Amino acid sequence: MVMMTGSLAVVGTVVWLTPQQGGRVSGPPEPDYDYDYTATAYLPPRTPEDGQAGIALRRFAPGAWRTPAEGILVPGKANRAQQVIPGCIVVITEGVRPVGLLTVEEISALAPDGTPVAVPQPVAAVPLVVDAPPPTEPPYRHSTAAARWTSQHASDDTTSQPAGV
Questions:
Q1: Which residues contact 36 (CB under 8 A, 6 or more apart)?
Q2: CB-side neighbour CA atoms (13 Å) of 156
Q3: What is the pTM of this model?
């Protein structure tokens, strides 16, 4: 998990919205090998008004409605504290109109000079296995407990009583 306090390099899958969904009338943008596609973006639950960031995308397939892409996400000055984790959705906008959705798969933080910064990876929990000694008594069972509650004195009392009493 990374708090967006500086620029982030992201890798993910972008899905461009169709014109019927309110996306670009001209369809998916055509990548230019000299320039990156640049737009504005935000991370829900924020909105374009309170969480706008800049995004630059590259290495996406021309004319594809769904394609892998790489990009750089740059927060606005007042919107730096946003959580970016693999699996989050970045809404790509042109102005305030959503035109695409980027699902983040990998992230890496960038220093102010653009060099990658190591992001600490969470350590997976390993289950603790302890060798338990073998039980000395058999496991507790209901039938075993019922047999223990039966008193031999009660059976002796019933046999010691005369039959006519």
A1: 56, 57, 58, 71, 72
A2: 3
A3: 0.65
